[in-house]
Amino acid sequence: PMPVLAVVGRPNVGKSTLVNRIIGRREAVVEDRPGVTRDRVSYDATWNGRRFKVVDTGGWEIDALGLDGLVAQQAEQGIEAADAVLFVVDAVVGATDTDDALVKLIRRSGKPVVLCANKVDGPSAEADAAALWNLGLGEPYPVSALHGRGSGDMLDAVLEAL
Ligand code: GDP
Ligand code: MG
C-alpha cells in the first residue's frame, strides 16, 4: 500500500492549493472563503519517483459545533489514517489559537510532521516563516503554494517523513 500524507491546517491557509501543487493538477477545490471544501479527498502523487497518497482534510462545514471543533475533528480523522502529517500554517497571518490546538493534536498522534509555512510568496515573508519555529515542530519550510516557491524542499522533507 502507498504511504499516506494528511494535509492538515485551519481553513483558508492554502491546503487545497498546496495539494494541487503536490499532485500537479487542479483537482482539489480552492475557495476564497474559509470552510467550504466539501470532504476529505485522497489523491495520488509522485515526487522523486516515489508514489504516495495525499489527503486534503478540509472537509468541514461551519455549523453548530463551531469552527474550531470541526477543524479538530476533521484533522484528527485525517491524522489517524496517515503515515505522516503536512501541517500548513499561513505564515503571513502567523500562528493562531486554532493552530496551537492542531499542534497539540498532531503531537498526541506521534506521527511524523512537516511544517509548511505557506503564503511565503517572496523574500519579504521569509521572516514570517522563521517565526513559526516557535510552534516547536522543527524547521518551518517556507512555501508559496500559489506560485510553487519552496515546494521542492518541502516535498524532500515529506519523503523523509513518510
Ligand atoms: P484551504 O481552505 O486551506 O484549502 O485553502 P485554499 O487552498 O482554498 O486557499 C485559500 C485562499 O488562499 C485562496 O484564495 C488561495 O488562492 C489563497 N492561497 C493559497 N496558497 C497561497 C499562497 O501561497 N500565497 C497566497 N498569496 N495565497 C494563497
Ligand atoms: Mg480546502
Automatic annotation (TrEMBL):
<comment type="subunit">
    <text>Associates with the 50S ribosomal subunit.</text>
</comment>
<comment type="function">
    <text>GTPase that plays an essential role in the late steps of ribosome biogenesis.</text>
</comment>
<comment type="similarity">
    <text>Belongs to the TRAFAC class TrmE-Era-EngA-EngB-Septin-like GTPase superfamily. EngA (Der) GTPase family.</text>
</comment>
<protein>
    <recommendedName>
        <fullName>GTPase Der</fullName>
    </recommendedName>
</protein>
<feature type="domain" description="EngA-type G">
    <location>
        <begin position="3"/>
        <end position="162"/>
    </location>
</feature>
<feature type="binding site">
    <location>
        <begin position="118"/>
        <end position="121"/>
    </location>
    <ligand>
        <name>GTP 1</name>
    </ligand>
</feature>
<feature type="binding site">
    <location>
        <begin position="9"/>
        <end position="16"/>
    </location>
    <ligand>
        <name>GTP 1</name>
    </ligand>
</feature>
<feature type="binding site">
    <location>
        <begin position="56"/>
        <end position="60"/>
    </location>
    <ligand>
        <name>GTP 1</name>
    </ligand>
</feature>
